[in-house]
Design brief:
Elements lengths: L1 H38 L11 E3 L1 H10 L1 H8 L3 E7 L4 E2 L5 E6 L6 E6 L2 H5 L6 E8 L8 E7 H17 L10 H15 L14 H12 L14
Parallel strand pairs: 1-2, 5-7
Antiparallel strand pairs: 2-6, 3-4, 4-5, 6-7
C-alpha cells in the first residue's frame, strides 16, 4: 500500500513538472510571437499598450495643440522608427539625437537612456526605439529614456518569464501573461501529454482548439496588463 502511494505521488509530481515545462515553453513562445507581430506592424497584444508613431505624427500634433499633445503622450510608451543622425550630448549630459519628419522643419528630440547603446549607433542606420513621452517639451516634441526595441523586448521577456518562475501553487495571476501560463499548466494537468512537443504555429485544428480553451478559461480581470517603462 505504501509503495502504491509513493508511486502515485511520484506520478503526480511528474505530471506537474511536465505541465510546468510545457506551460512555460508555450507561454514564452506566445510572448515571442506577439513581439514579432508587433515589430512587423501586425495586430498584437502588446501593441495595445505602445503607440506606434513617426516624427511627422508627433510634430504635427505638437504644433497643432501642445497641451493636447502632452495629455496624450506624457509618460506613454512610444515606438518610433527613424534613420539615425549623429549622436550628440544633451544639456543634461545624456546622449541624444534630433530626428526629422517628412521635411527638415519637423523635428523631434530623442534622449537615449543607455550610453552603451548610443555608442553603437551609426549615422544613417535604422533606429527602432521604445521611448517615453514627456511634458518636458519646449520648442519641439521630446522623447526620453529611449532604448532599442530589441533590448526593450528582451528585457520584457526575461522579466515576464522570471515572474512566472516565481509563481507558487494557488497564486493569483497578476497579469495576462501569468494567466496564460497558469491556464496552459491547468490544461496540461487535466490532459496529460497533449501539449508535449506542441508549438503555437502547428497547422492543426487541435492546437487551435487548445489555444481557444486556454484563453477562454482566463477571467476578464486577469486579461489586463501593463508594459514596463524602458
Amino acid at each position: 500500500m505504501k509503495n502504491l502511494i509513493a508511486i502515485s505521488i511520484l506520478t503526480l509530481f511528474g505530471f506537474s513538472a511536465s505541465a510546468n515545462d510545457n506551460a512555460k515553453r508555450l507561454t514564452e513562445m506566445l510572448i515571442n510571437e506577439d513581439i514579432t507581430i508587433f515589430k512587423t506592424a501586425g495586430d498584437s497584444i502588446i501593441g495595445e499598450k505602445i503607440l506606434i508613431v513617426s516624427a511627422s505624427d508627433l510634430n504635427k500634433e505638437f504644433s497643432k495643440d501642445q497641451t493636447k499633445y502632452e495629455k496624450k503622450y506624457d509618460n506613454q510608451l512610444i515606438n518610433i522608427i527613424t534613420q539615425a543622425p549623429e549622436v550628440k550630448t544633451g544639456l543634461n549630459g545624456n546622449p541624444s539625437i534630433v530626428i526629422n519628419g517628412d521635411n527638415q522643419s519637423e523635428l523631434v528630440s530623442i534622449e537615449l537612456k543607455n550610453r552603451d547603446e548610443a555608442l553603437n549607433i551609426k549615422k544613417g542606420s535604422e533606429l527602432d526605439l521604445i521611448c517615453l513621452g514627456t511634458k518636458d517639451n519646449v520648442k519641439l516634441p521630446v522623447l526620453k529614456d529611449c532604448v532599442t526595441a530589441d533590448s526593450y523586448f528582451q528585457k520584457f521577456l526575461e522579466m515576464k518569464m522570471n515572474n512566472i518562475s516565481q509563481l507558487k501553487e494557488g497564486d493569483t495571476p497578476k497579469d495576462f501573461f501569468e494567466a496564460i501560463y497558469l491556464s496552459f499548466k491547468e490544461f496540461d494537468i487535466k490532459n496529460p501529454n497533449k501539449l508535449d512537443g506542441k508549438k503555437l504555429d502547428d497547422n492543426d485544428t487541435d492546437m487551435d482548439e487548445i489555444l481557444e480553451t486556454v484563453t477562454d478559461s482566463i477571467k476578464e480581470e486577469a486579461k489586463e496588463f501593463t508594459m514596463p517603462n524602458p
